[in-house]
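User: Structure with adenosine-5'-diphosphate, tokens only please.
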Amino acid sequence: GRVIVTIDGVAASGKSSVASGVARALGVPYVSSGLLYRAATLLALEAGVPLDEAPALLTHLHAHPLRLEALSAGNRVWCGKRELTDDLHSSRVDGGVSRVAALPEVRAWVDAQLRALPAPFVAEGRDMGTHVFPQADAKFYLTASPRVRAERRARERPEDVPAIEAALIERDHRDRAQSAPAPDARLIDTGTLPLDGVIGAVLAALPA
Ligand code: ADP
Ligand code: CDP
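Assistant:
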């Protein structure tokens, strides 16, 4: 059927890796909502639009429409014919994205794009189960200690573990308004499980 599974959680808790694995097992796409916030941030940085100026930012986004391509193998973001995907995981974008994501106008712009996607899919982010897809068939919320998350992310960034840990804690703090678990979400600590174990736990908890 038209099933929606949501996987929310804190920064670098494993959301996209787990969502991708679950989506592949189910044979459906996954949707990485954070990529749209990251892409909006990249466009703002490149254009020199201040990250907290909602009207200027929205004008720029409407003039440069973004498209999220939600494939099961990996999500891509396009701005016209230019693919932004490889530029979205820099420390510069990491450092600005929570300010852009705090703007209600930007959140409404992202929400509309996500709600237009055809189910079934697995959606991951911060507020997929609480706000964007409250009607989801199954909801999960991933956690892990800041140190574990920083050690994992350090394998994907040039900075060292303490610098990454500090940045993750700062981002969790800025994201806390939109990053509470849904009351009906199942909490999973990914710090003590291998990736396959987390994917298996999600699949085992899905309604038949
Ligand atoms: P998020 O989408 O929450 O930022 P990612 O899926 O990008 O998280 O995961 C961050 C890193 O941690 C990735 O390199 C991923 O392979 C690794 N990872 C995720 N979950 C686990 C796990 N349970 N055990 C070990 N490594 C994991
Ligand atoms: O992978 P990681 O958790 O580091 O980041 P992400 O999921 O790509 O999200 C990047 C940022 O986008 C977050 O820090 C939030 O500021 C914002 N975000 C959000 O506000 N709501 C979402 N549903 C997804 C992301």
